[in-house]
Amino acid sequence: MISFRVEARTGVPPYLQIVQQVRxxxxxxxxxxxxxxxxxxxxxxxxxVNPNTVLKAYxxxxxxxxxxxxxxxxxxxxxxPPGPPPGTHSRLGRSLExxxxxxxxxxxxxxxxxxxxxxxxxxxxxxxxxxxxIA
Amino acid sequence: xxxxxxxxxxxxxxxxxxxxxxxxxxxxxxRVSALVGPNGAGKTTLLRILAGLASPTGGTAAVLGGxxxxxxxxLAEIGFLAQEIPLYRRFTAEDHIRIGAHxxxxxxxxxxxxxxxxLRIPLGQRVGxxxxxxxxQVALALTLAKRPRxxxxxxxxxxxxxxxxxxxxxxxxxxxxxxxxxxxxxxxSHLVTDxxxxxxxxxxxxGSRVQLSGDIDTLLAEHKVLVGPRKDTAPIERTHKVxxxxxxxxxxxxxxxxxxxxxxxxxxxxxxxxxxxxxxxxGADEASAGKRLTTVGESS
Lengths: 135, 300
Hints:
heterodimer, A: 135 residues, mainly alpha, 2 strands, globular, B: 300 residues, alpha/beta, Rossmann fold, 2 domains, six-stranded mixed β-sheet, five-stranded mixed β-sheet, 10 helices, 14 strands, 33% helix
């Protein structure tokens, strides 16, 4: 079973925060096919959000085909979102950790690392777009 | 979906002062409505009328299809928690549970006991010796044990610390979930971040009038903040309603209620937060007195 965090200051609507946390848990392998999501009652009693917010989040996940509501039983995971298997994330996470350590030793602070990541991602996008153009 | 609360041009005058002026609002069943507005805007008056504790001097109010009144059948459906928490300080929570059983036809004592046990609030201790947060929890749990169909809460969290507030709201949302869409709540508070999590409907009062009311998601989608160069806003006002305008010498920021798409490319349209919306409409009360334009950085 997973628990949710709902923060007011993120600018992300509460229902979307729940959707994203379920997707994230599925990608990381914290949730697996067949697992039950907490009931609406359990979620609202823990994080104090409107029950309709949780219902909306679960309906969205259902529409995506990731979960299914079973009458009288609750909401269960049907499949994982498309993407590499959970192990990939933790493997890449570990190599990223090594990189961060190296960057920190080289004197980069968090902000410089973040901007470096952004620049690299953007450069990657541009290179991809270019190669498509050539092809 | 049926309507739980409906008022039509509801007014309340005390001698020469208007506490409420021509308030027309509708709250569908199952919603949690945020009642917001400056102090003295009429929030408590509205709640007291809906609870049958005060009578209007004009207009009509219907709660669960009938006029609020002091009769047992009506009161059995209504939970009302006043600002000053109405408990007998020398009695224990358990005493209150027993008193409630005598007074309420649908009393659910196990509901109070379970919730208070979850919160580790002792049932056998005089409520006067509990903390403010615990007392508020006892009062809310007792009100929910009545199994009301309409719950009216007048600034119940104002005096509580952040943790006690969160726990109080969790008890409330759990109560709403337990009722399976049959409990309608009106909750007055100044704490917009709390209301944002818990409420899906809003009634905003300022200067004794309803300035804004309806489904929160719909209202957020209907409003935008337009940021652009300072210029004549007449073209904008032909399509949209300007709720608030903040201007510097060069730039103006308009909070508008959309009447169609924003066409002028000079303006950048941004989403509004509930807090921005609430603040803008609270100020809209003054706007009707001809002070809509707030000018920053220059003398007006």
